[in-house]
Structure formats: C-alpha cells, structure tokens
Design goal:
By secondary structure, the chain is an alpha+beta fold. The protein has a two-stranded parallel ribbon with strand order 1-2.
C-alpha cells in the first residue's frame, strides 16, 4: 500500500493510450514515457 498524498509515477511500459487509461484507472496520474516518444514517427 502507498500512503495517501504520495505521488505515484509509472516509469515503464507506456506505449498506448490504453496503457495510460489503465494506469489512470488505478489512480496513477504521472507517467514517464520517453521510449514511446523516441520511437514515434511523429511524437
């Protein structure tokens, strides 16, 4: 369990809008998505 008031950041595996939606559904609202931007044809 993570104490209330803490910022949760997911740092890996974010490749699609569905990935972000799944994290948001779990009350995670900060994402590190560097690889997805580096690989995108038009980030």
């Amino acid at each position: 369990r993570i104490p209330p008031g803490r910022t949760i950041v997911t740092e890996s595996g974010i490749h699609t809008v569905a990935d972000v939606a799944a994290m948001r559904a779990r009350d995670i609202h900060a994402f590190l998505v560097g690889e997805a931007f580096m690989r995108a044809a038009d980030p």
